[in-house]
Amino acid sequence: MSARPDRTPLPRSFFDRPVLTVAPDLLGRTLVRRTPDGPMELRITEVEAYEGEADPGSHAYRGRTARNASMFGPPGHAYVYFIYGMWFSLNLVCGPPGHASGVLLRAGEVTVGAELARKRRVSARNDRELAKGPARLATALAVDRSLDGADLCSGTDSPLSLLTGTPVAPDLRSHGPRTGVGGAGAAHPYRYWITHDLTVSPYRAHAPRRRST
After folding, report:
1. Which residues lie below 8 Å from residue 38, measured CB to CB, with a gap of 6+?
2. If residue 88 lies in a helix (H) or strand (E), which one and from where to where?
3. Angle CA(3)–CA(9)–CA(10) in degrees, nearest 5?
């Protein structure tokens, strides 16, 4: 019988490390989302790392703006952005303040509060699809821009926190190019996932958006 996931909260020092160290170490961890409707928990199964000003695929590549300010730290906070005028995405800020690195949560398994997630993700064909992709994950967990800057290390008063969970051994992880990233950052192998996990989203290469004529 497998051991239960560790309920110990992860300290800020967990996030205060290089992004390419933090990202794979997030696999198997437990994200806690506290909502007015009740608590939810997610086992993280897929992530992507972004290295800030040094990374052509990052929102911070061209510097600090009002939109990406949370990426610049301190570590252990959330960075939430709105994309394509339709969806939110949840990132966890890591590295030293001012460095602007973060990890996008791409997919996970809802382990607590699935009934709440189903109400928000009515198009999901089964529970494996509730958080299969960054937009689906954010929708399932009721994540929006109001959570931008939320401190994951401030205890049970925070709407978000991260528990130790069940870390995944390196031989059970896979990595490859990031989904939908084009240009100079397309080949960076900064996407990490639990090998063969059914909640992991499918990989899609970057496809330039066509302008309507």
Report:
1. 113, 116
2. strand 87-94
3. 100
Task: Give the Å distances, CA to CA, from 11 to 14, 28, 129, 164, 192.
Answer: 6, 16, 30, 10, 22
Provide the H-helix boundaries in 16-124: 19-25, 114-120
Residues 46 and 138: their CA atoms lie apart, in Å, by 13
Please tell me whether the overall predicted TM-score, pTM, comes out greater than 0.90 for this model: yes
Q: Is 52 left (phi over 0), alpha (psi -120 to 50) or beta?
A: left
Preceding peptide of 74 cis, ω within 30°: yes
User: What are the tens digits of pLDDT across the range 95-135?
Assistant: 999 889 999 999 999 999 999 999 999 999 999 999 999 99
- Residue entry with tokens 């205060």: 16
d(C-alpha 16, C-alpha 128), whole Å:
31
Phi, psi angle pair for 68, to nearest 5°: -100, 10
CB atoms within 10 A of CB 208: 6
Give me 192's structure tokens.
Answer: 């990490």
Distance (Å, whole) CA 163 – CA 140 = 19
Residue 23 identity (one-letter amino acid): A
- Strand pairing partners for 79? 91
